[in-house]
Design goal:
The structure holds two protein chains of two kinds.
Chain A (H helix, E strand, L loop, with lengths): L2 E6 L4 E8 L2 E9 L4 H16 L8 E5 L5 H18 L3 E4 L1 H6 L4 E7 L4 E8 L2 E2 L4 E4 H8 L6 E4 L13 H9 L19
Parallel strand pairs in A: 1-4, 4-5, 6-10
Antiparallel strand pairs in A: 1-2, 2-3, 6-7, 7-8, 7-9
Chain B lengths: L3 E6 L4 E8 L3 E9 L1 H5 L6 H23 L8 E7 L3 H18 L3 E5 H7 L11 E6 L4 E6 L6 E5 L5 H11 L6 H9 L22 H16 L6 H26 L4 E5 L6 H14 L4 E3 L11 H12 L23
Parallel strand pairs in B: 1-4, 4-5, 6-9, 9-10
Antiparallel strand pairs in B: 1-2, 2-3, 6-7, 7-8
Helix pairs in contact in B: 2-3, 4-10, 5-6, 5-7, 5-8, 6-8, 8-9
Classes of the chains: A alpha/beta, B alpha/beta.
Bound molecules: zinc ion.
């Protein structure tokens, strides 16, 4: 039996889920700005209880490691690293821009980086076409000219488009089958992109 | 039954995990210090500290378990520093501890960092009550009265900077490296207190203040530089240390007039200071030979997880466990950690 624990606390959401043999069996996602430190483990505990799964039965951890909120990223990643290294199970890191893009179609993912800047990633079927980066909104407008038929997801309101919300845990589950595990979970680090 | 407590400490710039067996048998105490990284900034950078904690925590945990030759299955409870400290740094230890508590179904124990510094002394000798504790570090300067075990009353504290901060500032103005405490102590022992510095607070309270002394040193150094007068660094260090430490000693002696205690205990990074260690012992002996002075060994003056495990072990016996949905508390008052 393959049981994955999926975690994203890299932005304002607290999203955690459990999947069994490729299917999400329990998940939660809500806005918990600056409350992730208090609530995340409690939510994971709750998922274990409602699914009757023992925490020791988890076989793989999937977590976003940024970019996004520095504190938020560290919360999810610390949980994932400690879980993975003490249980000796694989760790799969997913860029939060990749998570927003999901595993299908052509996507431009945006995350607000404040001061008229944003983190941007361009993905096709879950694979990056450029490296994730942080750019000014003006630079982003230039950049995406080449990608006219791509859908903008995430903080699209920064470019005066409608904000697009995603099912975080489902997207992480979809991506988890096409993204490799890290070689050494001890060495997993957040992606901040800014200094 | 074998009681195994894991301690986790990440409140400032040390990532530390300890494994403690049956109250007093320290099986391991791994400390990964970031001091060299913060040295180039001349002080602890909170965001940098948080980043390094995330990088280090699992390796430190694994090393602590391996060295202690225990597995997570043997562990009775996880004790961690909930505060006070740097919020981002505390988060990392908190998440690590919560994860272990969840996965291995063992209780969490929230420990106050300063209680850890006080009880670090029990690795040498048990505390006897009532006692007075002087906790001095980069972030704290507190005089604490303990009527009973784990009952804390702050009877005096700094009104502005912690003593350790003052040391760091003076070191910077003298062009010395961070942290300032050990280097000023070393230089002071080679110099004489020939510079005249004011002793800022002389009221009847048990509080101290370091901003005045700090400013006096800064102004004096600037004046000497302007006059192109050579500064004898050893003498400046000695003059500063004399005032800084004696201010503490005066308040400690004043407190001993008001509180009848069996012991005086030191704790915190600045309790490694050689002049402070000497003065406390000498002065207390002069006034009352009956009072025992406990000074922690150098290895547990600075931040470490052994002291957190130590307090955790006491709380474990009383079954005082933490809630999985609690957060860190960067400004936690020691009094609010009291059992009474
Ligand atoms: Zn400390």
């Amino acid at each position: 039996m393959h049981i994955q624990l999926l975690i994203d606390t890299s932005a304002k959401y607290l999203a955690v889920g459990l999947s069994k043999n490729g299917k999400v069996i329990a998940s939660t996602q809500y806005e918990a700005w600056q409350k992730q430190s208090e609530l995340t483990i409690g939510e994971i505990d709750r998922l274990f209880k409602i699914t009757n799964i023992n925490p020791k039965d988890v076989t793989r951890i999937v977590v976003t490691n940024g970019p996004g909120s520095y504190t938020g990223i560290r919360i999810g990643l610390t949980i994932a690293k400690v879980y993975s290294t003490t249980r000796n199970i694989p760790l799969c890191l997913v860029s939060s821009l990749n998570m927003l893009s999901g595993a299908r179609d052509k996507k431009i993912a945006l995350i607000d980086a404040r001061s008229k800047r944003a983190y941007v990633g361009i993905y096709q079927d879950g694979k990056p076409l450029i490296e994730d980066k942080v750019l000014t909104l003006e630079e982003i407008k230039q950049l995406i000219n080449e990608y006219q038929d791509f859908e903008i997801v995430g903080d699209a309101h920064l470019l005066d488009k409608n904000k697009v919300e995603v099912d975080i845990i489902q997207q992480l589950e979809d991506l988890s089958s096409i993204i490799d595990d890290v070689e050494n979970p001890h060495l997993a680090v957040p992606i901040y992109l800014k200094d | 039954m074998r009681k195994i407590i894991i301690g986790i400490e990440s409140s400032c710039d040390e990532t530390s995990v300890a494994v403690l067996e049956n109250d007093n048998n320290l099986l391991s105490n791994i400390v990964s210090s970031q001091v060299q990284i913060h040295q180039k900034y001349g002080g602890v950078m909170p965001e940098v500290a948080s980043r390094i904690h995330v990088e280090q925590i699992t390796m430190v945990l694994e090393e602590a378990l391996n060295k202690a030759n225990v597995t997570m299955e043997d562990v009775s409870a996880i004790a961690l520093t909930k505060g006070p400290g740097l919020i981002g740094a505390l988060h990392v230890g908190m998440q690590a501890a919560k994860t272990l508590s969840l996965v291995y179904d063992i209780p969490l124990i929230y420990v106050h960092h300063l209680a850890g510094h006080i009880y670090a002394n029990e690795f040498i000798k048990p505390l006897q009550y009532p006692c007075l504790a002087l906790v001095v570090s980069g972030g704290n300067t507190e005089l604490v009265y303990l009527k009973e075990p784990l009952s804390f009353e702050i009877v005096g504290e700094t009104r502005d900077d912690a003593i350790g901060e003052a040391y760091d500032k003076v070191a910077r103005v003298l062009g010395l490296s961070y942290p300032g405490g050990p280097i000023i102590d070393k230089l002071a022992n080679k110099g004489n207190p020939n510079y005249n510095l004011p002793s800022p607070m002389n009221d009847k309270s048990l509080d101290v203040s370091y901003s005045g002394l700090k400013t006096a040193v800064v102004n004096l150094v600037h004046k000497l530089k302007q006059n192109k007068t050579d500064i004898i660094v050893e003498d400046m260090a000695s003059s500063f240390q004399l005032v800084a430490v004696n201010m503490l000693i005066d308040k400690l002696l004043l407190a001993l007039e008001q509180y009848d205690v069996k012991q005086v205990v030191l704790g915190g990074g600045v309790s490694a200071n050689s002049y402070l260690r000497r003065q406390v012992q000498e002065k207390i002996k002069e006034i009352n030979n009956e009072i025992e002075v406990l000074i922690p060994p150098l290895w547990c003056c600075t931040d470490n997880a052994a002291m957190i495990a130590k307090v955790g072990s006491m709380l474990y016996d009383k079954k005082i466990f933490g809630d999985l949905n609690d957060g860190v508390d960067p400004d936690w008052r020691l009094e609010d950690f009291s059992l009474l």
